[in-house]
Amino acid sequence: MGEKTHYDVIIIGGGVVGTAVLRTLSRYQLKAALLEKAAEVGWGATKANSGIVHAGFHNKPGSWMAKLCVAGNSKYDQLCEELDVPFQRNGVMMVARTPEEEEILRHFYQQGLENGVPGMELLDGDAARRLEPNLAEDITLVLRAPSGGIVAPFTLAAALAENARANGADVYTEVEVAGVSHGEDGFTITSKEGVTWKATYIVNAAGLFADDLARMCGLDVPSLIPRKGEEYILDQRVSNLVKHTIFPVPTPKSKGILVIPTVGSNIMIGPTALEMPYKDDLSTTAVGLDEILSFTQRLVPKIKRRDIIAAFAGIRAGSPTGDFIFETSHAGKAVHLLGIESPGLTAAPAIAELAAQMLADAGLPLNEKPDFNPRRPRVIRFKKLSDEEKEKVIKENPLYAHVVCRCETVTEGEIVDAIRRGARTVDGVKFLTRAWMGRCQGGFCTPYVVKILARELGVSPLEITKRGKGSELLMAEAKSFLRGGETNA
Ligand SMILES: Cc1cc2nc3c(=O)[nH]c(=O)nc-3n(C[C@H](O)[C@H](O)[C@H](O)COP(=O)(O)OP(=O)(O)OC[C@H]3O[C@@H](n4cnc5c(N)ncnc54)[C@H](O)[C@@H]3O)c2cc1C
Q1: Residue 54 among the catalytic residues
Q2: Which class is 2-46+154-224+321-361 in CATH?
Q3: Which residue has its alpha carbon closest to ligand 1 atom 15?
Q4: Among residues 17, 206, 243, 479, which one has the fewest Cβ atoms lying within 10 Å of its Cβ?
Q5: Burial degree of 327 (CB within 10 A; 0-12, 13-18, 19+)
Q6: In the chain, domain spans
Q7: Among residues of the chain, what percentage have pLDDT more than 70?
Q8: Pair 174, 38: CB distance under 8 Å
Q9: Nearest atom of ligand 1 to the alpha carbon of 44
Q10: What's residue 441's pLDDT?
């Protein structure tokens, strides 16, 4: 049992929404902290999505989703520049193949105009194929929105948390909130292990579990609807298949199954949309793969099963109203962010500002910090450097001469940098550096990453985990190189 400092605001949940709220609050003269149950931030829906910064034509005009998607999208250039997070406005295309689909597509075009989506255009099939030669021949009409983009969502969450910490906020990981009570001295938040935190205000950003957290605060909220999405990643050999993110016309349940370029240069295909009774089933299935292949091959016929190198699944916090839900309890001092399904990644920067405003409306003073620094120290991405730049960084730090992940050309210097920025696990290193994300899927680099983590964290390699407690990678120090010596990867 133990008790931590009294905070002005505690945020529960370290996905892209919680970390964006924390970073927004770190602008002001107040004490804020974030509690996250996983070993690192960004490992809920935030790490397992399509990474699309939506343009904003998918959502019903006037809805929170429509307003916050367009507003969030417009903040991405500055945000990602300040935080040095990979982001590209590659543009999105919604495609139609039949007169019925064309009618639906025109409806989304009108909706985009009402939502204020900039720069949209309608193209016939041939004009679209001049921009995207691999689009199917039977596509007749395309809605193109150049403001659509792609981002590395887990990098964004980690960068938001890192910058918030640099501006005085605290982040506690491996803290699962199990109880929330309220008394004269504000909120008492108790973890599963019995540690307590005190706060005057709280923000519930617990994603798929935000309904459980809201109920802990005494709110009677409808249950969120877990909706699984499987995604499949293609080899970089076929990274030039498309430049735009390609959408079909949507289904009533989801935006449909897409072809998605990523900032890591792999094309991704997916996601499925399957409602489930559970919040923890992250399995991928042969049925899901077949569904995704048959849908995406109709958009881009050159997609081949043999090019798939990896798969994952994420679970959407499906909203029972079909829109984001913003609730308060305790006279506004607890703000609950519910049903933050897609376009939640896109909207996160705008949701964060809304949450801060809701806290201010309940009495939280928001006085700007004169020394707030919005910038995160630049990340050296060795693979992207010119030969001269490579020589320069190696001269300054020879660890950049040692390539640990051969598939993605990730150096020891980058891995050490990721650990110094907060990575504690093999997955944390993977998400921040891309070591393990190539064709061999960690087959070569894992022992070296384990060894570097152990050395930098000053612990035994036996303590290094893939993704937190219970996922230790080694049972014994069987190999001598794990105990010391060179990492001759
Ligand atoms: C397959 C799929 C594809 C998607 N594609 C896109 C897309 O392309 N573009 C887009 O804009 N959106 C997309 N989304 C939606 C987007 O991923 C989410 O809206 C966004 O990630 C939500 O972020 P969050 O912070 O609310 O939730 P999460 O990332 O789930 O974060 C919630 C956090 O709360 C923590 N937590 C939960 N309970 C507790 C507790 N009791 N104590 C402490 N911590 C707790 C969790 O561990 C988790 O880290 C997609 C979603 C899925 C599943």
Answers
A1: yes
A2: alpha beta
A3: 342
A4: 479
A5: middle
A6: 2-46+154-224+321-361, 88-149+225-315, 382-483
A7: 96
A8: yes
A9: 30
A10: 81
Coil vs helix vs strand at 260: strand
- Superfamily holding 88-149+225-315: D-Amino Acid Oxidase, subunit A, domain 2 (3.30.9.10)
Mind listing the pLDDT tens digit for each residue in 370-404?
A: 999 999 999 999 999 999 999 999 999 999 999 99
CA distance 301 to 231: 18
For 277-319, what is each residue's pLDDT tens digit?
999 999 999 999 999 999 999 999 999 999 999 999 999 999 9
Mean pLDDT of 64-87: 98
Q: What is the 263 CA–ligand 1 centroid distance (Å)?
A: 19
Residue spans of beta strands (DSSP E) within 331-470: 334-338, 403-405, 410-411
Ligand 1: atom nearest CA of 18 is 25
Catalytic annotation, pick one of 54, 58, 244, 336 = 54
Percentage, residues of the chain above pLDDT 90: 90
Question: Assign residue 470 a region: left if phi > 0, alpha if psi is -120 to 50, beta otherwise?
Answer: left
Q: Is 174 in the pocket of ligand 1 (CB under 6 A)?
A: no
Classified by CATH at the fold level, domain 382-483 comes out as Arc Repressor Mutant, subunit A (1.10.10)
Distance 391 CA to ligand 1 centre (A): 40
pTM to 2 decimals?
Answer: 0.95
Fill in the amino acid letter for 179: G
The answer to whether the CB of 192 falls within 8 A of the CB of 178 is yes
pLDDT at 474: 87
* Position 107, amino acid: H
Nearest CA to ligand 1 atom 41: 177
